[in-house]
Structures
1.
Amino acid sequence: NAGVMQNPRHLVRRRGQEARLRCSPMKGHSHVYWYRQLPEEGLKFMVYLQKENIIDESGMPKERFSAEFPKEGPSILRIQQVVRGDSAAYFCASSPGDRTEAFFGQGTRLTVV
Amino acid sequence: SQQGEEDPQALSIQEGENATMNCSYKTSINNLQWYRQNSGRGLVHLILIRSNEREKHSGRLRVTLDTSKKSSSLLITASRAADTASYFCATDALFQGAQKLVFGQGTRLTINP
């Protein structure tokens, strides 16, 4: 059973471009969470999704950021018109239910130049 | 504001000594989890302790939970150089009937050989 898979591991984008981060949850997991981590800091919650539904997006910036978890395929975190402040590590986690342990991917490190 | 706050922010000890990290939180929880993160890597789940449990063990790890004080501690006994990492506590926060994990800033543990 493969773990949570995130790709790419590293992503470099120029200011103004779009960044697409992908997350394939563990088999059988229908809950996906996205977190952002700045250097030397903890993880900041962004969004919680179940298949085809956004459950909680209270941590998502109101503009430029969007997330989806379609019926088929991975969850996607999309950042439009990236700025230097978007540079961070973005982690995805999945769980089989909402009161169980979450398993994390290795993260995508986004660098905006 | 952060639900979980770890203390201390940084801890440096000699190999073989015990390491204790603390976590305080603010609201009622169903469970509390501890994670480890090696530099530049994803998070690894260590232990989940439920609100009706007071203590849990896993190998060299011992976690306690005091819901009256809204605090938890993680004890690593007989520390090893490989234990060098950041350790995070995460509490579940209820939002519109769904749970999400909220992380603290972490304790950066350094084990000196």
2.
Amino acid sequence: KQEVTQIPAALSVPEGENLVLNCSFTDSAIYNLQWFRQDPGKGLTSLLLIQSSQREQTSGRLNASLDKSSGRSTLYIAASQPGDSATYLCAVKDSNSGYALNFGKGTSLLVTP
Amino acid sequence: KAGVTQTPRYLIKTRGQQVTLSCSPISGHRSVSWYQQTPGQGLQFLFEYFSETQRNKGNFPGRFSGRQFSNSRSEMNVSTLELGDSALYLCASSSGTGLNSPLHFGNGTRLTVT
């Protein structure tokens, strides 16, 4: 059974810092990995999707990388802003779960002014 | 383009009652998935429907059921509610035609069971 782990569980940084969020998964036979953002009391907003054949994806200040063989992904946020404060979740889709996503428990990020 | 819409946003029910939650996907999306989010377990997959057929099911008891209509709208039902069913229920839609089609989530229905 796929296990997805996110470290750290919580992170607090001053505005302007670059930061890295980590995600690891136990079964490397994945179709894709997706990063989401969740604001308090809200649903999930898709940030980036990396297909199994890709190494990274970029959107604005966000860059996500995927190392399938080692079962790891990182989300890099450049020049963090208070508006980036949210919970970041990674999820993988693999052959055992069909079309379902397996989620990590998330990293709660606080960017202080 | 309108996003995924879930109704109602909040629900308070008593143990033993049943509840129905509704989800309208993004126009043109044929796949609807449901997830349960709790502080302890995180996000867990309930089921997925594609073109009115259940295509995948998570590890939840039979009290949890769902269906999808011809217009792709979906409902999920929970019967004989238990305190542990208190959670944020999230619906997500996708085109469903490829393994790499991204999921788009609604804002969820917050269910409280007392």
